[in-house]
UniProtKB/TrEMBL annotation:
InterPro entries xrefs: AAA+_ATPase (IPR003593), ABC_transporter-like_ATP-bd (IPR003439), ABC_transporter-like_CS (IPR017871), Metal_Ion_Import_ABC (IPR050153), P-loop_NTPase (IPR027417)
Keywords: ATP-binding, Nucleotide-binding, Transport
UniProt entry tagged with the keyword Transport: yes
A Pfam family hit: ABC_tran
Keyword presence, Thylakoid: no
Name this polypeptide is given: Iron ABC transporter, ATP-binding protein
PANTHER family cross-referenced by the UniProt entry: METAL TRANSPORT SYSTEM ATP-BINDING PROTEIN TM_0124-RELATED (PTHR42734), MOLYBDATE IMPORT ATP-BINDING PROTEIN MOLC (PTHR42734:SF6)
Top-rank taxon, per record: Bacteria
Domain ABC transporter, chain residue ranges per copy: 1-233
Lineage: Bacteria, Pseudomonadati, Deferribacterota, Deferribacteres, Deferribacterales
GO molecular function: ATP binding; ATP hydrolysis activity
Family: Belongs to the ABC transporter superfamily.
Length: 243
């Protein structure tokens, strides 16, 4: 069963047009959005998440048009890590992650919510930062806090805009393993092609606001990458490099 159905979607942001004729995501499917800067990855994630409602066409979540959901219903279905997170002012790390459980609890947090929060703090290796102010953290620390918050929201659909950017090698591995283990539908954008193996099922290539193709991760080849990114890739042992 499809959890997301997109048909004839058209959205304008400034001079840019996103035009998605058809895209479906099934339950527990993991998809990566790849494409050059400005291809429309964030715009598409903004639309699926409900942040950008300015589009025409069909966007169904669990067979129901997204505009027919109340915001709180959507927040119980979809969690979203935007590319930049500047939303939290005076909150410390613990409360920032705890608030991922707001849609489920409407703020009436119980022991289960506190335990879940502690669990994600530990998994994302930010437990030692739990009393620190979010705004005072480094870029990679902030990213891990926002990821913990998203995972604490515990939704069937997880949208992640460049979840690996700013992470060091060790925490990139940690986050990849966590996401690979999640039995959820995940759509993530990334500029790191080599991280996707063992993580996603399909890659959707975007170019100039349109889907160029959807490719199974096992069918990826350098010809596709050459066409999308207009550079000459080398493939060594299944990993892609440029000179
Ligand atoms: N609020 C806005 N006003 C005007 N133009 C916008 C706005 N948001 C995005 N755009 C334009 O839409 C296009 C697509 O942007 P988008 O952020 O979706 O690209 P992207 O694929 O996520 O890129 P990147 O890899 O750089 O993150 C870009 O040309 C961008 O300049």
């Amino acid at each position: 069963m499809n959890i997301i159905d997109i048909k004839n979607l058209n959205a304008k942001v400034g001079d840019f047009t996103l035009k998605i004729d058809s895209l479906t995501v099934s339950k527990r499917e993991k998809i990566a959005l790849l494409g050059e800067n400005g291809a429309g990855k964030s715009t598409l994630l903004d639309i699926i998440s409900g942040v950008n409602k300015n589009f025409t066409g069909e966007l169904k979540i669990l067979n129901k048009q997204v505009s027919n959901y109340k915001p709180i219903e959507l927040a119980n279905l979809i969690s979203y890590l935007p590319q930049f997170s500047e939303i939290i002012f005076g909150f410390n790390v613990f409360d920032t992650v705890l608030f991922g459980r707001y849609p489920k609890t409407l703020g009436k947090f119980d022991n289960y919510d506190l335990e879940k929060t502690e669990l994600w703090l530990k998994k994302l290796d930010i437990y030692h930062l739990k009393n620190r102010k979010f705004n005072e953290l480094s870029g990679g620390e902030k990213k891990r806090v926002m990821l913990a918050r998203v995972l604490n929201q515990d939704t069937d659909i997880i949208l992640l805009d460049e979840p690996f950017s700013m992470l060091d090698v060790k925490h990139t591995k940690t986050v990849k393993e966590i996401l690979a283990d999640e039995k959820k539908s995940v759509i993530l954008s990334s500029h790191d092609i080599n991280i996707l193996k063992g993580l996603v099922d399909e890659i959707v290539f975007l170019k100039k606001g349109e889907i160029l193709c959807k490719v199974n991760i096992n069918d990826l080849n350098k010809e596709i990458l050459n066409e999308v990114f207009e550079v000459d890739f080398k493939c060594i042992n299944g990993f892609y490099f440029i000179d």
